[in-house]
Design brief:
This protein has one domain. It is elongated, with a radius of gyration of 16 Å. By secondary structure, it is an alpha+beta fold. The strands form two sheets. It has a three-stranded antiparallel sheet with strand order 3-4-5, with helices on one face.
């Protein structure tokens, strides 16, 4: 999940796994896999950074869990 902001200033969490594409028109439109569109205050570059950070955190968590299981097995 990534934290983004509605145009009215209300923050919300968005499932980054379901993002199909992001457009700048000049507001940032996010189209989700089911076809729903969301308009957010963040720029397209900010949404990209949030999504990349989210994916990196998933990989880090998986690596940490694997290391923990290896220690427990020893």
């Amino acid at each position: 999940m990534i934290k983004v902001t509605h145009l009215d200033g209300e923050p919300f969490l968005l499932n980054a796994e379901l993002i199909r594409y992001v457009e700048a028109r000049p507001d940032t439109f996010i189209t989700m896999a089911p076809g729903e569109r969301v308009v957010v205050r963040e720029s397209m570059d900010d949404v990209l950074r949030l999504c990349v950070d989210y994916q990196r955190s998933k990989q880090w968590q998986a690596a940490s869990a694997g290391a923990l299981r290896s220690r427990e097995a020893a």
